[in-house]
Amino acid sequence: MLIIATYDVSTDTAAGRKRLRRVAKICERIGQRVQNSVFECNINEIQFEELERELLAEIDKTKDNLRFYRLTEPVDLRIKQHGCFRSIDFDAPLLV
């Protein structure tokens, strides 16, 4: 399934900046960054639960915001892209 993970971490303090780096590293391990705080993650249900659990352990729920979007079928109509960024098609053959 395709998940969009977005976050907004308060960086007013050194602790907030540290949280932001940790949240970004978790997301970078699982998905690909498509904007500063937006990641596309092509994962299964177990991976999603793990991602959510890890991120919830990092954020401060009184200062930060974390959102997940599950994109549904039809597959070919899920995403429209405009501009210079081109995401990786995880379902296409890998060319090295």
Give an account of the 3D structure.
This protein is an alpha+beta fold and 96 residues long. It has a single domain (2-75), classed as Alpha-Beta Plaits, CATH 3.30.70.240. It contains two helices and four strands. A four-stranded antiparallel β-sheet has the order 2-3-1-4, with helices on one face. Helix 1 packs antiparallel against helix 2 (45-58). The longest helix is centred in the first third of the chain and has 17 residues, at 14-30. The two termini are 25 Å apart. The model has no long low-confidence stretch (mean pLDDT 86). Homodimer, forms a heterotetramer with a Cas1 homodimer. Its EC number is 3.1.-.-. Its cofactor is Mg(2+).
Task: Explain briefly what this protein structure is.
With 96 residues, the protein is of the alpha+beta class.
What is the approximate shape?
Answer: globular
CATH topology label:
Alpha-Beta Plaits
What composes the largest sheet?
4 strands, antiparallel
What CATH architecture would you give?
2-Layer Sandwich
Count of the separate structural domains: 1
Instruction: Classify the secondary structure makeup into a structural class.
Output: alpha+beta
Rg over CA atoms, rounded to whole Å, is: 14 Å
Runs with pLDDT <50, length 5+?
Answer: none
Portion in helices: 25-40%
Binding site for Mg(2+): 8
Subunit structure: Homodimer, forms a heterotetramer with a Cas1 homodimer.
Organism: Undibacterium flavidum
Family: Belongs to the CRISPR-associated endoribonuclease Cas2 protein family.
